[in-house]
Amino acid sequence: MASTTATQQPIVTVKSGKMKRILLIAAGLIVLLGAGGAGVYYYLLHKPDLGALTKASLSAPPVFFPLESMTVNLQSDDTMHYLRIGLTLKLPDQKAQAALGERMPEVRSHILMLLSAKRPEDLAGIDGKRELAKELLETVQKTGGTPDSPARVQEVLFTEFVVQ
Questions:
Q1: Both 33 and 98 in a single domain?
Q2: Segment 19-45, tens digit of pLDDT
Q3: Which of 10, 35, 97, 148 lies most in the core, judged by the most C-beta atoms within 10 Å?
């Protein structure tokens, strides 16, 4: 019988710790390069416009012009109802406030006439109050300025609203 003897050579294994370290370093470098590339991309392509920033910083905050509280009788069939209302006007600047202040007696008169024509039911819900604010805005813009240049009122805000 013939026997074959083969020399067995030991199997050499690569140290797995060394290979893991190389793979972790390579993965870390890929992540860092990707994050750096994304940062450069965002900085170069999405940089805010400096003109927009200066325009936003130069625009003045609005001016709030509070009016004295007003009390008016409301239209009613059964009993006497009244409305006590406090208003504040939102204006773009001091110049608009000065122009509106010159015509304030006329503005207050028109506001009182508008309010005294209302019924308690008209003012009951949130929609009624929104509609009233819109009507007040139109009234103030018309009477607070001239026909050529109406008053520059941005919004009418309620600071007090009591219907009794």
A1: no
A2: 888 888 888 889 888 888 888 887 777
A3: 97
- The answer to whether 88 touches 128, Cβ cutoff 8 Å, is no
Residues 149 and 68 in one domain: yes
Residue with tokens 């470098």: 29
CA angle centred on 114, ends 153 and 142, rounded to 5°: 35
Query: Domain total for the chain?
Result: 2
Give pLDDT, residue 127: 93
Whole-model pTM: value is 0.63
Model pLDDT, residue 157: 96
Q: Is the pLDDT of residue 139 over 90?
A: yes
User: Are 156 and 91 in the same domain?
Assistant: yes
Q: What backbone phi and psi angles, to 5 degrees, belong to 9? A: -105, 140
Which domain, by its residues, includes 42? Answer: 17-47
Q: How far apart are CA 29 and CA 65, in angstroms?
A: 60
